[in-house]
Amino acid sequence: MAELQESRITPLPVPPPPGAVAAPWDDAADEPRITAAIRYLAEHYTEQPSLDALAAQAHLHPHHFQRIFKRWAGVSPKRFAQFLTVEHAKALLRESASVLDAALDVGLSGPSRLHDLFLSCEAMTPGEYKAAGRDLVIRYGVHPSPFGSVLAAVTDRGICFLGFLLADDPLDPANGLSADWGAATLVEDPAATAAVVAAAFGGVRPDGGLHLLVKGTNFQVKVWRALLAIPPGHVTTYRRIAETVCSARAARAVGGACAANSISVLIPCHRVIRSTGVIDGYRWSNPLKRSLIGWESAQTTAE
């Protein structure tokens, strides 16, 4: 196995943009309605569904749905649908090019003067990797999010998992953790993981910053480090990340590293797309990847 490494990264800050969610997503009543509508919109975005069609998915009156949706996204459903198109993705790639160059320079070359958000990322040693989490206690919990239920998991050393629960997932969400951390002690403790979801979806940054515990090869950790430098509301290509990490010829390997990422949103693999503007290749479904990009575009766009 390739050498694993420890790294500390200071990416660009994430200030609350116009329309941003200022608190953790905690409206459990609205969550399933919005999730159903967003899933439908992300799967049928090429048709640009009408407000009535989306409201029907949420089982709400169109006027009420529009109000709830705008509270969630910061923009209207019609505007949000435009953020899901290939044309928007291509435009976002063009707009993001210079911003990304600066972000990568800051994120990879040393401490930034902009340190509103500090992430420390510790990679497991080869011995710890082989031990599959022996002597680790992993506390996990399931929480609502703007995109459906998520499973978050933490150790004393940091966040080790944040993933979306899909319809075909096993009934016990901890099964996936057991597969990756077979020798660890798993403890269901939603109170211990609530802050993770608040940070990922509500912009709430805990005192002392966020600490991530990842396991992967030296190459994978380098890719994840580069991803941390991509600001919200921007995207880049697999090739561009490959050029940053080693060589443009490693674009396919970058895709593999993104697929191996177990800490979604916080390590933003969803911000990497094809140079054609096509949005796919996401571990938690392509419609969800489109939704995340659309949501972040909406959060940085005043309507």
End-to-end separation in angstroms reads: 49 Å
Strands of the biggest beta sheet: in what spatial order?
5-4-3-6
CATH architecture of the largest domain: Orthogonal Bundle
Number of domains: 2
Overall geometry comes to globular
E-strand count: 9
Poorly predicted regions? 1-26, 108-117
Question: What is the overall number of helices?
Answer: 12
Order of H and E elements: EHHHHHEHEEEHEHEHEHHEH
Biggest beta sheet summary: 4 strands, mixed
Helix proportion of residues, in percent? 40-55%
Mean pLDDT: 82
Outline:
With about 300 residues, this protein is α/β, with parallel strands linked by helices.
Report on this model:
It is a single chain. By secondary structure, the chain is α/β, with parallel strands linked by helices. It folds into 2 domains: 8-17 and 85-299, Arc Repressor Mutant, subunit A (Orthogonal Bundle), CATH 1.10.10.10; 31-82. The protein is 43% helix and 14% strand. The strands form 3 sheets. A 4-stranded mixed β-sheet has the order 5-4-3-6. The longest helix has 24 residues, at 86-109. The N and C termini lie far apart (49 Å).
Properties at a glance:
303 residues, alpha/beta, Arc Repressor Mutant, subunit A, four-stranded mixed beta sheet, three-stranded mixed beta sheet, 12 helices, 9 strands, 14% strand, disordered N terminus
Element layout with pairings:
Layout lengths: L6 E3 L21 H13 L7 H8 L3 H12 L3 H6 L3 H24 L9 E5 L2 H6 L5 E7 L6 E6 L2 E7 L9 H7 L4 E4 L1 H13 L7 E5 L3 H10 L8 E2 H8 L5 H10 L11 E2 L12 H14 L4
Parallel strand pairs: 2-7, 3-6, 8-9
Antiparallel strand pairs: 1-2, 3-4, 4-5
